[in-house]
Every structure is written in structure tokens, then in C-alpha cells.
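Hi L.,

You mentioned the student needs an example of a multi-chain input paired with its predicted structure. This one should do, with 529 residues in total across all chains.
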Amino acid sequence: MPILEFKNVSKIYNNTTKALTDISFSVSEGEFVSIIGPSGSGKSTILRCINRLVDATQGSIIFDGHDIKQADKKEIRQVRKKAGMIFQHYNLVDRLSVIENVLHGRLGYKSVISGVIGHYTEAEKEKAFQILAMLGLTEQAYKRCDELSGGQKQRVGIARSLMQEPRLILCDEPIASLDPSSSKIIMDYLSNINETMKITCIANLHQVDVALRYAKRIIGITAGQIVYDGPPEKLTKAKIYDIYQSDEGELITDVK
Amino acid sequence: MDQTQEKAPRPQDQTSVFVTRKRTFTLAFLGVALIFVISAVATDYEVIGGLESIPKAVVWMARHFIPDAKAWSRLPYILSKLSETALVSVAVTVCAAICAFFFSLPGTKTTKTAPWIARIVRIIAAFFRNVPDIVWAILLLFSFGENILTGFFALFFATFGMLTRTFIETIDEVSASCVEALYATGATSLQTVFNGVIPSSLPEIVSWVLYMIETNIRSSTLIGMLTATGIGYLFDLYYKRMDYSSASLVVISIVILVIAIEILSNKIRKVIM
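Structure written out for the whole complex:
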């Protein structure tokens, strides 16, 4: 049974700009899917349609048994709880401490009042420290997020999403602002989480080589349409040129 | 520099920027001079006479505006009125800031309210901001009379409008990214405001409130003249009695207070930023 299903989804911004056209695919539990494609091809829109940060215009999206397009406010909250998200620019509250940012992952589970006053149970705090230890951030727990390096910030982002006990993690360009060594650390953690915790991962990536190395399945998007959907082994060079609509020798991945 | 070197090529068939700049400056200077001469002639302004009267004015001011013994004896009363005015300004600014913060939230993109609600918030804020506090004071004089409440509400409305507008912009600028992430965790709007918007925009907000306190102490002096309250009233009273030395002591004490508040708020800003 697929955990996520897109059926003929389209998204049109402001009645004019077509972001997605007739997208259909399904993701099974435990998969590591990478979406690749040029900037502006609709990768981020796909991820944001899943947790309703963006509303799809047409089609249906089923996640974990919920029809996302029909969901009311309460149901959207249920869906978002179960879908963690990490961002290119980490999107942490920079002026708060690491542990507070991690605990934000519990907000979806809390009553409005206890979320507003920031009251967390001892069990939640213990879990937050466990996740931080797993990600090697124990020493940073009480530091303010603006004191951290990019790689550390992204690990806090991962910790926040794990705190949600998600069934799915959406990664929007998780390594686009990181240096190669931090990028490897982040991708290794994501891949580890996917394998040991059986959490489904969907990652938008700009780096084709990274996608090929970590993902078990690649979806190629060009101008809002799926042009490739399959395992990385079958993604030929010609297909990559097709996705990026360029000629041989014009991509930086060719330098090898 | 090596003198024997050949001259570097320069663009041909185009006027040099150095020439055009010189020409612009000369024309601008001549233009300003011409405007001065024309307006001086039109208003019968005597340049020499004007300049000559400056020393006389200084002497007159020195004679009348230096606080004398009588003025100093009034200092405790002046200070009590001054502190009243300053405290009212602080109270007004803080009240207006709290109201403006919650009122600005539906106007920001962070709370995802319908666009027409955001539009209405902005229109209301613009209305309160664009009516000057003096005009508010005159209008409110009809309903409240010469009363401290008149000044309070006049300052409150103007501050509320100004702060709502700046809070909307500050909040959108500072907290857009973390707000998106908090919504993605399943947080409600109110939870997002308290966990994301307030922590990330608080220093900016405090900084604006400090600025408004400074501005309001200055404006409250003026409004006090209209509403016959506080330090403004005292200045008006002494001035109309031609008790210039006492009036000048009032001005000096206001200036010292405003400078002190400015120094203090700059210190606070450095700590919180």
C-alpha cells in the first residue's frame, strides 16, 4: 500500500503560471525518492503540495489515508504532524536555543495553550536530547542557533522533523547551501534515518551525482511534468540531458 | 608613474565624465544663487541687515533666556511636570505597542489571513498614522476637553498607526522562513506567533518601541500646549507671561531628558540586538 499517491495533480499560480501539469506517481513506505530537475521546474511545489503549504489546483493527493485536497484545518494538522520537512535555509528560529527549536517539532501534538506557553513534558525533553545525541549535537543543545555552522543548523532541522515522529520526511534542497563535507554528513544521516527508522524520504536535489548515489528512485521533472521515474541505474546520460534540457558537455556533472 | 609610457586609450566621440561633472556643478551653483537673489528681491530681504541682527539677537537671548534665580526656584515643579509628561509618553507607547502588535498580526503574511483582512488592517493603520498627532489632539479636545486623556489618546492613535505599519513590515521581513517551518510541523497560528514570530522579531520590535518613546516625549510637549497638561502647558504658561527665563529652563530640561532617553535606548539596543 503506497504511503503517498499523486493522481493527475496540477498547480497553477495566480491563474497564469503553470507550475505542475498532470503529475502522477506513488511512493511506498520506506522508499528514498529524489526529485531532480532545473530551477523553477516545480520540485518545491510538489513537496509543498503534500503538506498543504501550497494548495494543488487539480487532481488528488492521498497521504497516509488522508485525501489532502479535501482536508479541513484539523486534518491538515494531522497530516503535517506526520510529514516532517527540512529546508535549504534550515528555517530555524535563530534567536532560540537548539533544544527549543527541536521541541518545536512537538507543536502539532500539543494543545494551543501549552504550545503557546512552551510547556513540554519531561518525556518530550528526553526524546529531544536522544535525537540530538544521535545527530552529534549534545554539546550544542543550549546554544543559540545563530551560533551554529550551516551543517549543524541542518542537523537541528533534521532533529526538529524527527521530533514529529514522522512517517515521511520532505527535504527541500537540504544540501544546496552546504559545503561538500557537511553535505555528505547530512545525506548520510538522511539515508541512515531512512534505512534504520523506516521513514520515507523525498528529497529535492540539485546535485545529480548525490541523487544517484543516495536515492533508490529518481523522479525527473522538467517544466512541471515528470519526464523520468525509475531507479538510478536506468537514468542514462541522455535522460539527464533531457531533464535539464541541455546538450552534451554543458552540464557540470560531465566533468568526470 | 612612468612618464615615457604611452597614454592609455580613452573613449572617443563621447564627452568626458569629468567635463560633464564640472558643468553640472557650475550650473547647479549658478541656479541656486539666482533663486536666492530673485527671492531676496521679491521679499525685500536685506542680506547685510539680516546678518547684522544676529549678534543683537544673541545678546537679547542671553539676557532673557538664561534661567535666573526665580526660574531655578521653580525647578522642582518643572521636573514634576516633566516626569509626568515623560511617564505618560512611555505608558502611551507601551499600550499602543501591545495593541499594534496583535492588530498587525492579521496584516502580516505569517498568519495567512485572507488578503482582504490584511488590506483592511493596512488601511486602518494608514488612517491612524496619516492623521498627525496634533490633529488628533485638536479633534479629541472637543470630546474630552483640556484633559490628560486627550493627550493620551492623541498620542495613542498616532503611535498605534505608526507601529502597526512598522510591525507588519518587520514581522514579514524577520520571521517568514521560520514561520513556514513551524506551520509545516503542524503548529497552529497562535503557536507559530508565540514560538516563531515573537522570538525572532522581538529585538526589532523593542527597538521601534524605544524610538517611539523618544518621539512621543517630544510630541507630548507640543500636545501638552494644546490640552493644557504636562510640561507643554508649563512652557506655554511661562512664555505667555513673558517669563522667558523660566520658559527656557523648561526647554533645557526637555532637551536634557530627550538626550538622556536617547542614550539609554541606544544602550538597550546594543544589548538586545
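You could point out the following to them. Strands of chain A lie at 2-13, 17-28, 32-36, 58-63, 66-67, 83-86, 168-172, 200-205, 217-222, 225-230. Residues 180-196 of chain A form the longest helix (17 residues).

Best wishes,
N.
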